[in-house]
Amino acid sequence: MAMSRRKTERLLSLVVCLLSARRYLTAGQIRDAVPGYPESFDAFKRMFERDKDELRELGIPLETGTNGLDEEPGYRIPRQAYVLPEIRLEPDEAAILGLAARVWRRAELAGAAAGALLKLRAAGIDAEETTQPGIEPRLQTGEPAFGPLWQAVRDGRPVSFGYRAAGRSSSQQRHLEPWGVVNRHGRWYVAGQDTDRGEVRVFRLSRIDGTVAFTGPPGAVKVPAGTDVRQIVITRDIEPEVRRTAVLRVRRGAGFWLRRQATAERPDAEHPGWDLAEVPFSGTGWFSDHIASFGADVVAIEPADLREAVIRRLKGALA
Amino acid sequence: MRTAATPGTGTQATAADRLQRLLALVPYVVSRNVVGLAETATAFGVSEHQLVDDLNMLWCVELRSPDPYCPIDLSYEGGEIVVSQAESIDRPLRLGVDEASALLVALRMLAEVPSLDDRSALSRTIAKLEEAAGAAGAPSAQVAVQVDDHGAGSVLARLREAAERGRRLHLSYYVPGRDEATERDVDPMRLLVVDGRTYLEGWCLRAEAVRLFRLDRVLALTVLDQPAAVPRHARHRDVDQGLFRPSPGDVEVVLELSPPGRWVAEYYPCQEVTELGDGRLRVSLRTPDIRWVRRLALRLGEDGRVLSPPELAAGVREDAAAALAGYAG
Q: Which of A64, B68, B156, B166 qualifies as a FRET site for B150, CA 20 to 30 Å off?
């Protein structure tokens, strides 16, 4: 604790010192000005190197340069690059900001949202986290792959991960230049260039097996100009199959959702108490499973392949 | 799961965390001229004791060269903080990429929520934040959240009307687990948008409890003339604990899934998920509605098998046999 306290004091003095400097300060000048560095120059250098890294990790723009041609290189923090630009929010805008800061609560970027709010409050904004306009939005990032993939996207780094495609019994190692992460229907996807297949691919984060490894340095991934990751994910999600129309026999009083989607509905003359509904569908697999779930309340009449698929499903459940 | 933490709080706070707090503390006070200790401690999520320690640390900053001087001067006499000299740290540090992205992605998601009536405030906020974030805001464009709103638009307009006039609602609501349309009166409380789906939270007079209604399952909605009267003891659902929590009356169901049935573990909140090898999974979930599981089992066919309770397994077989009878002949 005492160690950490001395370090905080030293880092604070270092920031104040470098921010106030009008000229680049050499390492020697910094050691003379900032209390808390060891006497030995080597020990000082090691500690100073670590301190510089820490400041840069916090996003503090530490600049290196020289004051004149012959001079030793030095350091400073340009105020222009350090300060948050002036930002003023009206009360209704501040309320929305407070709402936005809650979105990530308990999810991956929660700490970042809290940090941002702190800085904005420090800029004089009174963003309350409590005043609510009757709406509560949340994002969740239950998938462990979210954190590393966001970092990869942010820093432009290629990645590799084990991926279990839908219905596969084992996972396969995949290599990706990630372009972006998208949440659709409550699930996270990553889109990018699959370097094994040489094609744009979309992966569902919940199907990533194990850890995500970075396979290249930051900046190695170049996102092609005009890329709309959201559109890539949406397009991937659309079933390529043609839309067809099913004829279903639906028990009266059942199948509400199917009836809502029906383009036509009439009583089934041969089966009192039943209706015939024409329902458009695409993707026989999903639709036959859906019909099977209605049990004895819905019978698929046509097309024949749909009817067969439902029967197969039901026989599977019977086994 | 990670928890939201304000930088610099907790016992594990690192020097870097605390430095971030100190660098925000000075401009926080400067931008407000005078501010109370208690209020500031709350804003930073620390104890007053910790805050005083922070202030002392700031006041003690000393630079020794070329001439020794103390760049920060402040006082907190009588519980009021005043910073009389702040030198170069009188303004907050720029937003980092993660910070800017967290807020911008959230704000753009809010822009998709069809119910937020004050569109202009939202777009003004986004524009101001984008400008303040500068280059740090750019990577946020690589994260997108789509909010589903199919069919919710007209429902939302009437919901808003009910909320504004403080009226009770009549809902015709589809319950997929039972494949039923249910009729109920609901006193609206608020809207939740969780992972891209919009829900109405309200006091259901039929269940005499707080219930969530997915807007895309609202078949019809009428604003009644009766005033809404949410009971005093009605509590908001804690969104952060997960929308659907098991309750004591729930039945525990164990399913074995083959690879094509693995989606169940992604789609529903499972209590336990066990890999059985070759991509097979055993999952256990708790549900108040056993009919829903029977329907799920029919949907899964050979890709899922009910392991327990045994009477449920028998029920599924009965359902399947009854359904197959419809295909006989």
A: B166
Residue B92 with chain A: CB contacts under 8 Å: 83-84, 119-120, 122-123
Q: Is the pTM of this model over 0.90?
A: no
Instruction: Nearest chain A residue to B143 by CA: give it.
Output: A181
B59 part of contact set with chain A, CB < 8 Å: no
Tens digit of each residue's pLDDT, chain B (329 residues): 333 344 444 445 688 889 999 999 999 999 999 999 999 999 898 999 999 999 999 999 999 877 888 889 999 999 999 999 887 899 999 999 999 999 999 999 888 876 656 678 889 999 999 999 999 999 999 999 988 766 566 777 788 778 778 899 999 998 877 777 889 999 998 888 887 788 889 999 998 989 889 888 888 899 999 999 989 888 887 777 666 666 777 889 999 999 889 888 888 888 889 999 888 999 999 888 888 899 999 999 999 999 989 999 999 999 999 999 999 86
Strand arrangement of the beta sheet that strand B34-36 belongs to: B34-36, B80-85, B73-75
Q: How far B248 CA lies from chain A's nearest CA (Å)?
A: 25
Shortest distance between the Cα of A32 and any Cα of chain B, in A, equals: 6
In the listed set A210, A237, A264, which residue is the last one of a domain according to the structure? A237
CA A81 to CA A63: how far, in whole Å? Answer: 10
Domain end position, chosen among A82, A102, A134: A82
Domain match, A150 and A231 both: yes
The closest CB to that of B324, out of A96, A166, A311, belongs to A311
ipTM passes above 0.90: no
Residue A201 CA to its chain's centroid (Å): 16
